[in-house]
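Colleagues,

Please find the record for the two-part complex below.
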Amino acid sequence: VTRTRRLRESWWARTTPGGFFLPAVLVLCLWGATAEPARGQDEGGELVQRELEYRAARQSYEAALEQLRAEYNAYTRILDEVRIARNAGDDAARGNALARAYARSQEVQRLEIRVQESRATLDERREGLLAALDARLDEVQQRLGAPGRLTLQERQGLEAQLAGLASQYLELEEQGSNVLTPRNVLYPSIVYDPRDTPSDVLFKIDFAEGKLAQAVSQAEELDGQIQRLDNLLRAQRSRRDFLGQLNRFGDTQVPVGQPGQRTERGEGAVADTAGVALEELPLEQQLATLRTFREQMTRVIEVLEERVRDLRARQPRAIGAGG
Amino acid sequence: VRWGGVRRPRPGACTWLAAVALLSGPADAAAQVRWVDLVVSAGVSGEGYRGNLSSATVPVVDSTDQAQAAVGDLGVQGSVLLLERPASLVQASFDLGVRQFAASGFQVRDYSPREWAGVAGLLYRQRLGGAGTLFLRAGYQGRSVDDRPPMPLFLQPAFHRFDGSVRYVLPALEGVQFDISGRLERSDYQPPRAVTQLDLLDRDAAELELGARWGVGLDVRFYAGLRQSEYPLQGSFDPADPYRRDRTVTVGAEWAWVATVAGTVGLEGIVNRSNSRRPEYDAFALRTELVAPLPWGLTANLYGVLTGKTYVFSTPFARLVPGEEADAASVLYVELARDLAPNLASAVRFGWTRAETDIGESYYERYGVSLLLRYRPHIR
């Protein structure tokens, strides 16, 4: 924070144009390395290395986010299909669309995790680059502050280097707070644009509210399904435990059928138990899938609520601008 | 327990060690395998027994006609997916338990029977594209009993059993799904020194079953099976064919439904014929299971069996093991369970059994109430 404040207050931060910093820094690093080979090579090399790592992390994050954006688009299209099928009373189409939505939600979850991981790496690389810049800035400042050892040409070179480094530092910090998040890429069309006319804003509000109502309704339906499956799963577990404990010591052994048969036919018989258990397994997986889907619906609802709030807040301004 | 004259750890001990090993490492193993379920259960029971009977399979006889016991049991049951692919999977399952009785009310002395029971199985499932699903399974079941008491406290005898099965489920054809299964089994009973007649139950068996299932909501399965059993230590009283061989035909139907109250009802008819006249019988079994959610987070479970058995020829001497080859039996268990936490459930269970033993028209009864706890460590 101290470094940032100091840099923002300094003259070179105010005068150096953003975007110029990277080639300038690289050139100046090389220049610094020429001026003082042993020390400059190490520090310049590390800075370049950190810069490359940061760039790779940023590309990786943007690629993951782009994939998530595409997946969100496909996902929201399927949610529309669910709504259309439900409104039309077409249960078969709705079931089909829901099945695809569940499958998509797994992929969305996978990509969301990937984006999170990429973001963590990006933040880490940014911190690393900031630390390297910080060290380099200190080092250049120390050299500038050393009395009577620099020629005018060297001093000007170091000052230019300092300006480039400071500019890069500030821009990097700004990038940290302006990174696109998964929330930004969900429903990208329902975002306020300064060029929107009042009617555009109203349309976007209506559109977002429609989506929101649909998502809330879908979430309520999911809650009911999850509750039902949860009850079913609890009943199944209870039944399995009940029969398992009864059969464990042969207390339900009866004198007909297979002698010595541990459990009853088709239910917990050793040969079939595993098969039955596996047939039950999808219920647990189904519940997990529904829960994932429900979490994503919560996120969709939160984003849409945020967008509606934002658009409503901008509505008078848009009307004013349009009028 | 001795195998081949060499003292070895009892199967229970081995399986308990395996259980401890498994319990200690689910989290570590999670990277390689996936736990389908793991439940540790414990219970205490009060039980009563009635019936002044003798049994050919218990070394001691007691003149009491009533006994009681305090019982504690501990068990662990679980299944693990060792391999999980879209078309195939391998699942291991196990169930291990120990039960300790403190029985009183006998004339001669009090007894402290202890049972160890365990099952382990390995299942391989292969989906064959549009051609159905194939299941292969191998399993072991064993139990041992220390200080086996006289009647009327009947406990199943000790044995080791190995079995293997193959099951093929065809794809549904116009809503009907056919299945065919085959199974091989070898059972080896472990008699105490004074009751060597239990060895007579040693057998090898092979069976084949065909089934057809259909329905949505109310699921119905009809099945028919044929079982061939050989008892290499049991005489047939026929010098030309000296060892007992049974053929058992089973025909049955089972209705299963999943709704607010879910359950199954099964009715089965059995015809057993043998080269020995004594064990030839006709029988039926009616089974019911119900599970129903109740208010206050309670779940009710019911299990009931009613059987009837008629021997083709009356024989003047005792039959074999009650619960194995005796006559009619009725079993009824009711349980109320409630979750105390997401991974902890408690239950109260009431049980009643009435079964005919070696001696015709003589029944023993068993009734009890149990308090049970079930813990699933993998659920948070």
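The first helix of chain B runs from residue 11 to 24.

Comments are welcome before we finalize the supplementary table.
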